[in-house]
Amino acid sequence: MNEAFYQEKFATKQYGSDAYDVKSLLPFLDLQPGFNYLEVGAGTGCFLHDFVKTAGVRPGRICAADLDNNLQVTATELGVPLEFEHINLGEKALPYASNAFDVVVCNHVLEHIFETETALRELLRVTAQNGLCVVSVPNLANWWSRFTLLFCGELPLGLETGTESGTDGLTSYLRHRFNGCKPSGHIRGFTPRALRDICGRCGFQFVGWWNQNFGWRNKLLQPKMGIVLRKK
Hints:
Layout: H1 3-11, E1 36-40, H2 46-55, E2 61-66, H3 72-78, E3 83-86, E4 101-107, H4 116-126, E5 127-138, H5 143-152, H6 172-177, H7 192-201, E6 204-210, H8 216-221, E7 224-231
Parallel strand pairs: 1-2, 1-4, 2-3, 4-5
Antiparallel strand pairs: 5-7, 6-7
Helix pairs in contact: 2-3
C-alpha cells in the first residue's frame, strides 16, 4: 500500500465524510453491555462515531487501527477511551490477541489493499468465536453499473484506472457529476458473489447482507454493500 497516497487523501479531507445506515446493521449483532469493538481502517472515525452513538449499548473496549491516527475529533466527541494502533492491513499481523473482539468492522478498506486474503484471515483471527465481523466494499454489480456497462460501456462505479483521474470510462452524465473528483485508490473490485466467496475461502461463515446505503434510490441501486460474517 502506498502510504503517502493515503496520507495525502486524509490531509486534504478527501476521506472521512461518508455516512452509513448503521441502524440497519444493529439487528444482526445482538450487542451485550461491555462488548469489545475493533475497527480496522477507521479513517477519521465517522463510522465508529455513528456506531457507538447508535448502538445503545456501552462498549467495554474500543480499538481502532489505521495507517495514521486521524481520530482525535471522534475520540473527543465520543468522550470514551479509544485505543489506537498504527497498522498496514495485509502486510503484518494485527497487534491484537486471537478471539479478542465481539464486533470487528472493516469498512471500505479491502478495495484498497493487495493482500486481501491475508487481511481477511487476520480479521477472522481477532474475531471472538461468538462474535461477528462486518466487511463492506463498493458493489461493482450495483444496478446502475449493470445497466450502463451493458448499454454504454461505462466503467462500473468503484473501479479506477489510475491515480490521476477519477472520471476515466464514465459517460457524460457521471463525468460531469464527478468532475474534479480524485481517485480513491481502489485496486480491487467486488461483486456480492465474489465478496461472499473470498470471505468463505478465508474461514468465515455468511450471516447476512447489510444494505448500508442511505436514501431509497441508493438502497435500490446498492452502490455500497456490507457482509456480516462469523467464524465457521
